[in-house]
């Protein structure tokens, strides 16, 4: 496997990449849709990088209520906080589609005595990645703060439209996943989407959306 063009491996040269491979710090694994990649309460030594497909980060309470915290798309990392901090996972990591994951063993990376330069590069890359992920988390907080379902949808769809740079866009969630992400009931979500369509605000088909007029209350 050649060096993937991913933010985590920015500035890693071929010799350093081969070093990671030769010392068994990299592992490529494939998962079918809806497979659990990491379990809640698991203690991990590896971080995951999505090579293809999509991964969801889910929180499940003691009563079985599920909330999607984020979607991890191709090229992005997951579980890095738990891995670096050596804390048990408080979430479950699940493949939302057929997915290929590259795992980097952080424990081995930082216990090898002759790879300090690689560790420094990856640590610096992780800092940049973490700042971007903080922005994503902030966006979810914005989406779930309003009290009404419509208000949450307005913020979410506005953000997705801005991110796509156009009024027609595709989201990564199905209806249940979107309900979990916005922390609302799926039936209430579907009803509100229909109302917004009837009001001429949006049109949609499955996960494809189009904004027809400025989104407002």
Folded structure, characterized:
By secondary structure, the chain is an alpha+beta fold. The chain has 7 helices and 11 strands. The strands form 3 sheets. The protein has a 4-stranded antiparallel β-sheet with strand order 1-8-3-6. Strands 2-7-4-5 form a 4-stranded antiparallel β-sheet. Strand 4 and strand 5 (66-72) form a beta hairpin. The N and C termini lie far apart (50 Å). The model has no long low-confidence stretch (mean pLDDT 90).
Quickly list its features:
7 helices, alpha+beta, 217 residues, four-stranded antiparallel β-sheet, 40% helix, elongated
Strand content: 15-25%
Low-confidence blocks of residues:
none
Helix content: 40-55%
Largest sheet: 4 strands, antiparallel
Mean pLDDT: 90
Query: What is the spatial order of strands in the main beta sheet?
Result: 1-8-3-6
Give a brief outline of the structure.
Helix content is 40%, strand content 24%. It is α+β, with helices and mostly antiparallel strands and 217 residues long.
